[in-house]
Design brief:
Distance between the termini: 34 Å
CATH class of the largest domain: Alpha Beta
CATH architecture of the largest domain: 3-Layer(bba) Sandwich
């Protein structure tokens, strides 16, 4: 028996001596209820030996008060009545640990969020609710037992899913710290949506000039294993010890033999719509997505290829890289941490029939306009009308298409980038065509970032872009010339207006990836109501998930621009490095345990476990029973609540502990 085991055994047999510490939390609690009265009430409850109040128990002074009572032997259980355990439970656990008390002999009563904040106008009711929470916490504290943390080793490798600007920056930060990275991208190239952009706001930097060096750096880094045209298909294990299976899709071209010469492209007889150009141009069945693509080796789209054999001829492909019989390859790797940087999808406005997208040729999306403006786009940076391929002399942009218009079939949230990219595109066009008339129809201009307000003001003042506040009521096409006639109301002038433009751009918003559900299932992470991946805490843990060892970054977590995406990439990389640098990680002992003598082996718990932590094992005494992997288990209680045999308990939330709270035993 170790020294720790002996101390735990002694603590478990001690008669409870509970210290109750009620925090004023400034005026959040103390301004609504009488904290001294709550302390006096707590002192009347059995086994409470100390009751104290203080303005902020989370402060050094407040923590010192608790430590002194522990060190003096006055208490062996601690109850803090204050704010959310999500915020300060770790603080007070460390306080207990530093004073020599097992950190799990601590309970927190949330009387701020659950009482004073929600009953602020009913002080008497708030007081009664606070009393209840304190009594419940004391009842549970009486039943607490000392626990020991589990430690597991951490593999010094990181998996990054998604190789856009976020994933690439995270990968480079990790390798600069000396860690191995597996960078998985399901497209044939890295770069993500940023590769489709021409310039970036508000500095008007060339997007390719920023991105291409990063892409080259990724391809040269020996510590990054770049897996493009690949997908993660299975993830098992737990923090520090994930086992990941990756599917490498067949390119039908040997990626080692191919030298990227491109001679095979012109002879290919098949042309299809180019996804990278959003349908504004075509590509061959054998292709690279865009000229600066990394890797630069070619891929055959076998859904379009007719296997005519032209590209396989020796005079076309001298290295003999064509392989029509190529098969998928599966690899399995050991991973310590995972970063999800899967990016976003552009909102599809086809369902908004009132705007004519897909019906009128001169109605396009913001990302399509980006490709028209791009120097390596389908019209080499000289935007034209799709109807006749001539320069437009008038353009209108409509903001918030797919954002802030839930009733029209869009999303409730603001996509953050649309106001700025419309302003950027309008300015770009005006620089080349000063005589053009540009209109931007908006509800509110949201210029939230550094330098964004100045960028917006300059567009109106220096470039003569017309900002019209008001929603568009109706659009229709002029059948004579395919121009778009717009009827709207200028709410600032309080009068209806009608304009005819040659090109109509829908500033479409940002949506979660269409297949994001598959990621949540694979990694056992959660999504928020808007469909983006859910962070552990919006302020204090913005890149963590509720599944330890897995982090999120960039637009996969929510709409944001490039600087914010890069900042989150660095945050996620730093968090992953922090875990891997330790070499081992502690796992809290709040997990499910099976009472073998009660388990009937029905398997219902296995069906209900979202974390894949339960499996059947053969027990000599009791036959086939459930067994729980404590490293995978998150202590959610889904198995315990559904167990018909009452055979499963959650450590730290046992039936006895919960029963003592529910029955109001004091």
């Amino acid at each position: 028996m170790t020294e720790t085991d002996i101390k735990i055994s002694i603590m478990a047999n001690e008669k409870p001596r509970i210290g109750v510490y009620v925090c004023h939390c400034g005026v959040n609690i103390g301004g609504v209820v009488s904290v001294p009265d709550l302390v006096e009430y707590a002192k009347t409850l059995p086994d409470v030996t100390v009751g104290r109040e203080y303005k902020f128990f989370c402060s050094d002074v407040g923590q010192k008060m608790i430590k002194e009572d522990i060190e003096a032997g006055l208490i062996n259980r601690v109850v803090v009545a204050a704010c959310s355990p999500r915020m300060h439970e770790p603080t007070f656990r460390i306080t207990c640990k530093e004073a020599g008390l097992n950190q799990f002999l601590f309970e927190m009563a949330n009387i701020r969020e659950h009482s004073t904040w929600v009953h602020m106008k009913d002080t008497e009711g708030a007081y009664e609710v606070a009393k209840d929470h304190i009594r419940l916490a004391i009842a549970k504290a009486r039943e607490l037992a000392p626990l020991a943390v589990q430690k597991v080793n951490v593999e010094p490798t990181c998996l990054i899913i998604g190789a856009g600007i976020t994933g690439m920056n995270a990968a480079l930060d990790l390798t600069s710290a000396g860690y191995k990275v597996y960078l998985v991208e399901r497209s044939a190239t890295i770069g993500g949506h940023m590769a489709q952009l021409d310039k970036t706001f508000p500095t008007m930097d060339c997007s390719s000039c920023i991105l291409t060096p990063k892409m080259s750096e990724i391809s040269r880094d020996k510590n990054i294993e770049l897996l493009t045209y690949s997908e993660v298909v299975e993830v098992t294990g737990y923090i520090g010890n994930f086992e990941v299976t990756i599917k490498k899709k067949p390119h039908y071209i040997d990626q080692v033999k191919c030298n990227g010469c491109g001679i095979c492209v012109d002879p290919c007889p098949i042309s299809v719509g180019n996804e990278f150009e959003l349908g504004l141009a075509t590509r061959k069945a054998i292709y690279i997505p865009f000229p600066q693509a990394v890797p630069s080796q070619y891929t055959i789209d076998m859904d379009s290829c007719v296997e005519c054999g032209i590209c396989a001829r020796e005079d076309v492909c001298e290295p003999g890289a064509i392989n029509y019989d190529d098969k998928p390859e599966f690899i399995t790797v050991k991973i310590g941490t995972i970063i999800v940087a899967t990016g976003y999808d552009e909102y599809d406005p086809s369902g908004l029939k009132q705007y004519g997208y897909g019906k009128y040729p001169n109605v396009i999306t913001g990302l399509q306009m980006e490709r028209l403006l791009s120097s390596f786009g389908p019209v080499v940076g000289k935007p034209v009308k799709p109807s006749d391929l001539k320069d437009p002399h008038s353009i209108a942009f409509l903001q918030c298409v797919g954002s802030r218009n839930f009733r029209e079939g869009g999303n409730k949230y603001c996509s953050r980038v649309c106001c700025m990219y419309a302003t950027k595109q309008a300015r770009q066009y005006k620089e080349k065509h000063p005589e053009a008339d540009i209109y931007i129809f908006y509800m509110d201009i949201r210029a939230f970032g550094k330098g964004y307000e100045e960028f917006y003001e300059s567009a109106a003042r220096d470039y003569g872009i017309n900002y019209v506040r008001g929603r568009i009521a109706e659009i229709r096409e002029n059948p004579l010339n395919h121009n778009i006639i717009i009827r709207a109301e200028d709410t600032l002038l309080q009068q209806p207006i009608e304009v005819e433009v040659e090109l109509f751009v829908l500033s479409t918003g940002i949506e979660p990836k269409a297949d994001s559900d598959s990621i949540t299932t694979l990694l056992r992470i959660q999504k928020s109501a808007d469909g983006f991946f859910l962070e552990a805490h919006p302020k204090l843990r913005p890149v963590d998930t509720l599944t330890e060892g897995i982090f999120i970054a960039g637009v996969s977590q929510g709409p944001k621009d490039i600087p914010d995406s890069v900042a989150q990439a660095k945050g996620a990389a730093s968090s992953a490095i922090g875990l891997m640098a330790k070499g081992e990680v502690e796992i809290e002992p709040f997990f499910a345990v099976v009472h073998s003598d009660r388990c009937s082996g029905c398997g219902m718990c296995i069906q209900n476990c979202a974390y894949g932590a339960i499996e059947f094992v053969d027990d000599r005494s009791f036959g086939t029973i459930a067994s729980i992997n404590i490293a995978l288990c998150k202590g959610c209680g889904a198995c315990s609540g559904n167990c018909r045999s009452s055979a499963i308990d959650i450590i730290g939330f046992s039936s006895e502990q919960l029963h003592s709270m529910i029955t109001k035993r004091v």
